[in-house]
Amino acid sequence: MYETLTFTGGVHKSEEIRELIEDLGGFILQDNVLQMELVLSMAVPLNDVGRIEEKAEELLGKISIAPMAGSEIAIVSPTLARHHLPHAACDISEYLREYGAKDNMIGLARGDGKGTSGISEEEKQLIEEHDVAIFALGSFETCIKTKSFLYDDINIPVIVTGSPDIPVEELPGADAYVGDLGRIPRRLRRGPDIRALDKLVKTVEEILNNKKHEMNLDPPLVPSIVVKNAIENQVPEIKDVISPAPVTTQLDGVRVKLDYNQYHEIIENVIIDGKKLSEFADIKKSKMYDYILVKINTESSLIENS
């Protein structure tokens, strides 16, 4: 079992914590350098968290638990058009990234107006490639309730945000609802806005923790971070990808930002513990830019398919 952590500190001597992560059998999930500050997301064995904390203290850095690290979150808006995009969606995305999340903004093709909005099957499939979906809706209660059909049959946990206070029981298909995050023509920088974003962070973390607990009962045959590491070591083309997080970890797999038609056979033949990746994972074309989506099988799923 691994714990996901975030190290925040100076760039000076940061190679020491990188080397320690490797020595402990951990993995670096993502690192960002902002001028002279390093934000490093990692996964380390549970028993070695204390050693990472000691090294962070030695380097005058800070370690925090990051439940969102290693997950991929979809932030869905009715449209990305300026006349309808809830300004909260951009701030939600930025705020979640501070807690280790890898998120993608998705705008629906027919989202404008409660009478004409819709969602296609392809859009649903794209959303369901993620671990959690956040539907960032607007400021009117009747509109939010009317649009529940956008997510009522999405097969991953769904969090809805909006301005009014609505009981989640009145939103079919939603796992949680967070208010005070409606369509606001300004940045979310005031006290009530930050408190609403903090509540959203807590809600996302609770849902991810619940999902991890369920997965522990029937876990993937190989942790996704092990698959990520194997792909990065065995597929040299990954080094040429200029997109952020070229191999993005999810709770039950990875997204590889290489063209499926050209590289899927190479990914299928990646070797982990003497087995090809295709022997214990489903490898298919993603709805996002024709990337490669890897979903790792569990023991029960292999029994069902045998």
Give the tags.
306 residues, alpha/beta, Alpha-Beta Plaits, Rossmann fold, 3 domains, 5-stranded parallel β-sheet, 4-stranded antiparallel β-sheet, 32% helix
Structure write-up:
It is a single chain. This protein has 306 residues and is of the alpha/beta class. The chain folds into 3 domains: 2-65, ACT domain (Alpha-Beta Plaits, 2-Layer Sandwich), CATH 3.30.70.260; 72-215, Response regulator (Rossmann fold), CATH 3.40.50; 224-305. Helix content is 32%, strand content 25%. It has helices spanning 14-23, 49-58, 88-97, 121-127, 141-146, 191-217, 224-234, 260-268, 299-305; strands at residues 2-10, 27-34, 37-45, 62-65, 72-77, 102-107, 132-136, 158-161, 176-178, 247-250, 253-256, 271-272, 275-276, 281-285, 292-296. The strands form 4 sheets. It has a 5-stranded parallel beta sheet with strand order 6-5-7-8-9, with helices on one face. A 4-stranded antiparallel beta sheet has the order 2-3-1-4. The longest helix has 27 residues, at 191-217. The radius of gyration is 20 Å and the shape is globular. The mean pLDDT is 89.
